[in-house]
Specification:
Elements (H helix, E strand, L loop, with lengths): L3 E4 L2 E5 L65 H4 L3 H14 L27 E12 L30 E14 L2 E14 L2 E6 L2 E11 L3 E11 L13 E14 L2 E13 L9 E16 L2 E14 L3 E3 L6 E3 L4 E13 L3 E10 L8 E10 L1
Antiparallel strand pairs: 1-2, 3-4, 3-17, 4-5, 5-6, 5-7, 7-8, 8-9, 9-10, 10-11, 11-12, 12-15, 13-14, 15-16, 16-17
């Protein structure tokens, strides 16, 4: 206790004793836990307000991933703001997010539903072999723009008609074998054909023209895929017997795929066929287009789907001539349109084998043939 001490002529002074225990200093920081470093302040920050907690706030860069409250890799989840844009607005925003913010969990792969059409090419390259058989009857004007035949009025490289016949009814069978090799988004293929014809002048059979091509996948998301394709037709078949066109042709095209639902898909293609070295009067360019709607209609096993396909295929002739099958006169091809509609079925066995057939009918007065059947067997490896 403190005790007062008396002094002469002074007031008592209270004395407080020192503590009897020694204070233990705080332990030093562990060498494995370094002290936080204090960043030196820049000269430009002098005089600025020091708001507590401001340095702890993280500002995310503005991008499509966070403008609607979601992150990259989660493009299938939208906030309420996006859902209020309407049906077409949500569709366009899905394409926008697919371009700027692709789903990180999406793994590009070949799927049966996206490659079921018969007359419209698929967008994704794949390692496969395809055996195709075409049968057509009552074909008219086969030398139109020299797309199927060379000029066949007796003055060109095509078959010479019998007097007053002019190939009024042509039936043909064509077997083609295609070998395609793909590496990632790039693919190449080679195709050769064997054709048998029944014409007014007799029966002809033999190897037809060959073709080689390349395909490149330009844009690939789960919703939309776009590819460019370039095909070159090489004359090999005898044009005099109607087995080939007798000239080289080029066909650049643009192919697209759109996933409508887990069980439906849309394929589309636009191509420009350009003849090189054909008859100066008859040969002419044409625009070819196709649309296919594929839908899974039955699935007895998870890896064995049966897919139906409905297609619209058209040919718009831009130039050239053709021989009228009724009179034998020369007619202009420009401005003419052939439009065919087809429906078919494909059976897939996992991702290795598929088999299917399709029937095509003309939807316009002008057409390639009255009946066109196509059967395919494809094997992937």
């Amino acid at each position: 206790m403190a005790t007062p001490v008396e002094a002469d002529d002074e007031e008592p002074v209270l004395l407080i004793p020192y503590p009897t225990t020694e204070e233990v200093p705080a332990p030093l920081a562990s060498p494995f836990e370094p002290l936080p470093e204090v960043a030196p302040s820049s000269p430009s920050s002098a005089g600025s307000l020091n708001i507590p907690g401001l340095a702890d706030i993280e500002f995310a860069p503005l991008s499509c991933c966070n403008c609607c409250g979601s992150q990259c890799g989660q493009s299938s989840h939208f906030c309420n703001e996006c859902q209020d844009m309407g049906r077409y607005g949500r569709f366009l925003r899905s394409i926008y997010r697919g371009i700027c913010c692709p789903d990180a969990c999406y793994e590009p792969c070949w799927t049966p539903l996206a490659d079921s059409a018969f007359f419209t090419n698929s967008v994704r390259p794949v390692n496969q072999q395809r055996f195709r058989w075409d049968f057509a009857e009552d074909m008219r004007n086969p030398d139109r723009s020299e797309y199927f035949w060379a000029r066949a009025d007796g003055s060109g490289l095509g078959p010479t008609p019998v007097t007053d016949s002019w190939f009024r009814g042509l039936d043909y069978d064509e077997l083609s074998h295609t070998i395609e090799a793909a590496h990632g988004p790039i693919g190449i293929w080679f195709e050769y054909t064997y054709r048998a014809l029944d014409t007014d002048t007799g029966h002809f059979a033999g190897f037809g023209d060959m073709s080689i091509g390349t395909k490149t996948l330009l844009f690939d998301t789960e919703l939309v895929q776009i590819a460019s394709q370039f095909r070159t037709y090489i004359p090999q078949g005898s044009s005099r017997e109607g087995l080939g066109t007798g000239h080289t042709s080029l066909e650049p095209s643009l192919i697209a795929g759109l996933k409508l639902s887990p069980k439906s898909y849309l394929q589309a293609e636009v191509a420009e066929w350009i003849p090189l070295g054909g008859d100066s009067v008859y040969a002419g360019a044409l625009l070819r287009y196709g649309f296919a709607y594929n839908r899974t209609i039955f699935q007895p096993h998870p890896s064995i789907p049966i897919i139906s396909t409905s297609e619209i295929t058209g040919w718009h002739f831009q130039d050239g001539q053709f021989t009228d099958s009724s009179s034998g006169d020369m007619r202009p091809s420009s401005g003419g349109d052939y439009v065919h509609g087809s429906t078919g079925l494909r059976l897939f066995i996992c991702d290795r084998v598929d088999f299917g057939t399709s029937a095509s009918m003309p939807l316009t007065g002008g057409s390639w043939s009255e009946t066109w059947l196509r059967t395919e067997l494809r094997v992937r490896f």
